[in-house]
Amino acid sequence: MITFRPFYGLVFLFALALNLNLNAQDAPVAEMRGAWIATVANIDWPSKPGLTPDQQKIEFDSILDVLKAMNMNAVFVQVRPAGDAFYKSASIPWSKYLTGKQGVAPGDSTYDPLVHMIKAAHERRMEFHAWLNPYRATSDLDTASLDARHPLRALPAERKRQWFFRYGNKYYFNPASPLVQQYLTNVVKDLVIRYDVDGIHFDDYFYPYKETGQNLDDYNEFAADPRNFTNVEDWRRDNINRLIQGVSTTIKKTKPYVKFGIGPFGVWRNRDRDPINGSDTRAGITCYDDLYADVLLWMRNGWIDYVAPQLYWSIGFAPADYQKLVEWWGKNTYGRQLYIGHAAYKINNAANDPNWNKPDEISRQIAMNRSNAAVNGSIFFSTKSLLRNPNGIQDTLIGRVYANQALVPGIPSLASAPPATPQICRVDGDENAVKLTWNICELLSGEESPYYFGIYRFEGEKIGEFKDPRNLLNITAFDNEKWYYEDQTAIPGEYYTYVVRAFNRANVESYSSEPVFVKKTQKKAKKKRKFWGYLFG
Fold it and tell me: Per-residue pLDDT tens for 142-159?
C-alpha cells in the first residue's frame, strides 16, 4: 500500500473558483453523441431477417464496438418499426424484420433482443434509447401476413374502422381515437416498466407525410367531435398533443429519470406561413402544417425532455440552410435539451447538393453546434452510413472531432437531488498502474445512489479544468458495484491530481471528491520496488 495526501483548505476552494471562470474547450466534456440504429426494412440491424440469436448478437455488438471507437455515448434503436416489436410482448407481435414473418420469435424462449441490446450498450458506457414509430401500423398493405395479435387482425371490423386508416401503401393508427392514444401509451409504459431503457424516443412520423393524390379522410370524425376546434388542422394537432402529454405523464410516473424525446422533421414552420415564429426556410413539408406536430408546444409545456430535429441539409443550402436552422432551433428550446440530427447518409451521396461532397461538411456542422450554447450534441442517421465511412467520416470523428470521450449531458429536472459525493479512500500502485478506490460514506437526506463515476486526472499539483475533456480519464461501467479504477497511462516522474465525481441516471453529477496528489517515481533498474510517492512525503 502507498501513501497519498488528501488536500483540504483554501487552495482547493481557490482552484474551484478558478475553474468556474475558465472557458470551455472546443470539444465539451459533456455532449450527446448518438446514432440512430434503424431496424425497419433491415436498414441498419439485423442485416437480414432470419439470423440466429448468436448472429444477431454478434452483429449488434460489432456495431456498438465501432460506435464506441468513435467515442459515441448513446444509441437510439428502433424497437417498434410498424406495429410490431423487437422485444418479448404478450400483446405485440415479433417484427418480421427479425425472422422474416411477423409473430415468429427469433430463437429460443430465453432470448430477448432488447435485453441483450440494453446490456451491450450499458457495458460500453452508452445510453440506450428505445425508438418507437407510434402511428405506423404496417409497412405495406399485406394485412394477410400480419400476426393474429396485431390489432389490425385481432379487432372486430367496427373497432378497426375507429383504430386505423389507410393512406398510400400503408395502414396507420388513428391519432384521433382515444382508444389508440391509450393503447400507445400502454405500449410505452410496458417498455419502461420491464426494460432498463434510458430514454423513449419518437421520430418524425405523426400524421403521414403527404402523397400526391392522397387525402386524410377524417372530416366526419372531426364533425362528430370537434372539441371546440373550428378547423380540422388544429384538431389534428390536438390529437397528437394528447398522446405526447399522456406518454410524458406516464413515463414520469413510472420511472422519472427516463428521458422522453422527439426527433422531428427539421423545419417546424416556414416564415411565409408564420412571419413571427417561422424559420427563414422554404421547405416543402413542415412539422406544424403538414405532420400536425406542434413540437414547440411540447417543449413549452415540458412534455419532452429533449428535441433532436433532423437537420438533413448542408451549410448554405438555400431552401433549408443548416446554419439558419441550428440558430432557429437554438432560440426555441424552452429550456429543453437540443440535439441536432445529422444526415450521415448524404455524405458524398446527394445529387442535388454538392456541399455533401466536401469532406469537412459534418465537422463544420458540429463546430457550429459547439459554438451555440443551446446545442447539447448530435445524433447521426444512420449507423450504416457511419460504418461505410464515406469521405472518411469515421476517421474524422475518431481522430479529431470526437478524439476524447464525453459524458452525456445531465438533465437536472429529472433528478430529485444530486448523487452522493464519493471519497477516495485508498491509492495503491505497482509497476504498471495506480489504483484508486473510493466509497460513499453515507447517503444524506435526499441524495441518490450513484449510477456511474467519472475519474478526472489533472497534470501537476493542482486541480485543473473539469470542462476540458482531456482531463476526463475514464467513465466507469453503469450500475457497477466495483468502485475502483486502475490508471495505466501515468508517466514516471510526473505529478498528478485525481478527483472522482458520481453521476445518477439523469447524468447529474455530484460534488467532487477531495483531490489526491500522486507522483509516479522512476522505476529502479535492478531492484523491483513500489514506486508511488505522495506530494509532500
Answer: 999 999 999 999 999 999
**Segment 56-79, tens digit of pLDDT:** 999 999 999 999 999 999 999 999
Residue 436 near residue 485, CB atoms below 8 Å: yes
Q: Any residues with CB less than 8 A from the CB of 442 and at least 6 apart, and which?
A: 420
What would the pLDDT profile of 214-238 be if each residue is shown by its tens digit? 999 999 999 999 999 999 999 999 9
CA-based nearest residue to 337, from 329, 345, 328: 329
pTM (2 d.p.): 0.92
Beta partners for residue 202, in sequence order: 132, 262
Main-chain dihedrals φ then ψ at residue 423, nearest 5 degrees? -130, 125
In CATH, which superfamily holds the domain spanning 32-409? Answer: Glycosidases (3.20.20.80)
Half-sphere exposure of 423 (CA within 13 A, CB side): 9
pLDDT level of residue 524 (50, 70, 90 thresholds): low
**Spatial CB neighbours of 165, under 8 Å, sequence gap ≥ 6:** 171, 172, 174, 216, 217, 218
Helix (H, G, I), strand (E, B) or coil at 248: helix
H or E element in which residue 435 lies: strand 434-439
* SS3 assignment, position 502: strand
Cell of 393: 467520416
The residues facing 37 across adjacent strands are 77
The partner residues of 341 in beta bridges, in order of sequence, read 310, 379
CB 263 within 8 A of CB 341: yes
Residue 143, burial from CB neighbour count under 10 angstroms (0-12, 13-18, 19+): middle
For 198, the grid coordinates are: 434510458
Residue 120 and residue 266: Cα distance in Å, rounded? 31
Strand positions, DSSP E, 11-132:
32-37, 74-80, 127-132
- Using an 8 Å Cβ cutoff, are 34 and 377 in contact? yes
Q: Give dist(CA 34, CA 370) in Å, integer.
A: 15
Q: pLDDT tens digit string along 252-264? A: 999 999 999 999 9
Q: Say which residue the cell 461505410 belongs to.
A: 388
Q: What percent of the chain has pLDDT over 90?
A: 85
Sketch the domain layout of the chain as residue ranges. 5-23+413-534, 32-409
Query: Which architecture characterizes domain 5-23+413-534 according to CATH?
Result: Sandwich (2.60)
CA 15 to centroid of chain Cα atoms: 33
Contact 71, 404 (CB under 8 A): yes
